[in-house]
Write a structure and sequence with these properties.
- The protein is of the alpha/beta class.
- 38% of the residues lie in helices and 15% in strands.
- The protein contains nine helices and eight strands.
- The longest helix has 23 residues, at 242-264.
Length: 288
């Protein structure tokens, strides 16, 4: 009933709103090697500060070239950003592909397609960004440190702004969420759930699991539903890193599930659901 695309949900996490003619795209910093193969959908999990520096440089270059044309690039969490297009440009028939579903695959022929005008504009943006990134000092420093470069941007997930009823109005229940991922934070925002700000919470391999678990324990006193979303097993799978994936699951069990379970046992009635929002395989580095 309410899904219009992934990007507009993530935009809600950044406080971005829009009208019926506006469109939002998700933008990833990615690593595409010299053979044209998608090696990393997150440019090696590039940090928020460095990613923001690159996004700002890309946005300035797009503006200088006159390519934005009613659009704005807004940095998000880590390697993610939102491209907000308020020009009224059509997305009818436009097709894009998620970069995390193309890992170790050639990118040729998998860029924006299906709507010649809009797809052509998006390809121009990507080509210009490649030129900016090729010579940027952030990538020079990453190369010196033995890290993969943010070689390109990948634009996908387009959609218009959704309208959703508030969760408490529909079900008479309150909810809170902890997450370091814009997609989940956007869902919370759109349905009116409180997002718990937890110091040290990241979407990469090194979050403060204990702080996240304690924040959820505290929230049980004031909310009917508490959603504790922990991202590292997914990112470790996308990197093909089995050791880190196992370690993250163990950390979730110790610092999130354990304390939450102990707190819930003090309540007369409760349910605890532990599950993945989807599968990601280390073997393929892709969703399944």
């Amino acid at each position: 009933l309410y899904h219009t695309g992934r990007a507009p949900i993530e935009a809600a996490a950044l406080g971005i709103t829009g009208g019926p003619a506006d469109t939002v795209y998700r933008v990833n910093l990615v690593t595409i090697d010299h053979t044209g193969v998608m090696r990393d959908h997150s440019a090696g999990g590039i940090s928020g500060a460095r990613a923001r520096t690159l996004f700002l440089a890309i946005s300035q270059a797009w503006a200088d070239l006159g390519l934005l044309d009613g659009a704005t690039l807004v940095p998000g969490e880590g390697y993610r950003a939102a491209l907000v297009d308020r020009s009224g440009r059509s997305i009818e028939g436009l097709r894009t592909q998620p970069p995390h579903e193309m890992l170790d695959d050639p990118v040729e022929g998998q860029g924006p397609s299906g709507n010649a005008e809009t797809a052509g504009w998006l390809r121009q943006l990507a080509e210009a960004a490649h030129g900016v990134l090729a010579d940027h000092e952030v990538n020079a420093k990453r190369a010196a440190a033995g890290q993969g470069p943010a070689s390109d941007v990948w634009i996908w997930g387009q959609g218009g702004f959704p309208a959703m009823p508030a969760f408490d109005e529909r079900f008479g229940l309150s909810g809170v969420m902890t997450t370091a991922v814009d997609l989940l934070a956007g869902i919370a925002s759109l349905i009116g759930w409180e997002r718990l700000e937890v110091p040290g919470l990241t979407g990469w391999h090194d979050p403060d699991y204990e702080a996240q678990g304690l924040a959820c324990v505290d929230a049980i006193d004031r909310a009917d539903i508490v959603c504790c979303h922990v991202e590292p097993p997914d990112e470790a799978s996308h990197q093909g890193d089995t050791r880190t994936k196992v370690a993250s699951i163990e950390a979730i069990d110790r610092w999130c599930v354990g304390p939450i379970l102990a707190r819930l046992e003090q309540e007369p009635e409760w349910r605890l659901l532990v599950l993945p929002d989807h599968y990601t395989l280390c073997r393929t580095r892709k969703h399944d």
